Amino acid sequence: MKTKSEIKRKHHYGFSLVELLIVIVIIGILAAVAIPNLLKARRSSNEASAISSLSLLFRAEQTFKNSSGNGNYTSLTGLYANGHIDSVLGSVPHRKSGYEFQIDLYAPSPGVEAKFDLRGRPVIHSLTNSATGTGARDFGTNEVGGIFETTDNTPVLFDSTTRLAQGTAVPVDR
Questions:
Q1: What is the number of helices (H) and of strands (E) in the chain?
Q2: Where are the extended beta strands (E) located within 53-129?
Q3: CA distance 17 to 174
């Protein structure tokens, strides 16, 4: 038989409300520090993927032009149809890793070679460090082959005669 003192001594297992609140506050602080860094890393990864995709698309266009025999470039869908790129970049819309790709083709005329302008723009631009942004830089290249970037939410544009990048576009540091 239990004595009165044994009956009164009950063992309480678990955490008190204060201890649980302290743990929740610590987790909140850690999340507030870690999440912005993770989002920044994701945007950086998307931008690196966009630069890589532009390089791939440039090489695919050069290969198509040299192998087609007609001296022309083709659309992104045409590159896919001819086996130069995979279905991720070849399907409409032409999106990969948070970037959308677009190509403008200029057919050759007598004495003038074919040209193209290829751009990659973030699906959701993040000039500020927004949580939903997929990238903060726009990228572009043309038949000359240099990759350029802008950071002011404007597309990379090329002069139709000189084929040099215009406006705020600067070469990408690789």
A1: 4, 6
A2: 95-96, 99-106, 115-122
A3: 52
> How confident is the prediction along the chain (174 residues), in pLDDT tens digits per residue?
666 655 565 666 788 999 999 999 999 999 999 988 898 899 999 999 999 999 999 999 999 999 988 889 999 999 999 999 999 999 999 999 999 999 999 988 887 889 999 999 999 887 665 677 889 899 999 999 999 999 998 999 999 889 999 999 999 986
Decide if 53 contacts 143 (C-beta within 8 A).
no
Cα separation, 57 vs 6, in Å, equals 79
Contact 114, 141 (CB under 8 A): no
Token code pair at residue 58: 């440039």
The backbone torsions φ and ψ at residue 162, rounded to the nearest 5 degrees and listed phi first, read -80, -20
**CB neighbours of 106 closer than 8 A, spacing ≥ 6?**
114, 115, 116, 117, 160
| ∠ Cα 6 12 15 (to 5°) | 165
The SS3 of residue 62 is: helix
C-alpha dihedral, 142 to 147 to 150 to 153, nearest 10°: 60
Pairing verdict, β 115-122 and 95-96: unpaired
Q: Is the pTM of this model over 0.85?
A: no
- CB of 147 closer than 8 Å to CB of 168: no
Distance CA 7, CA 104 (A): 85
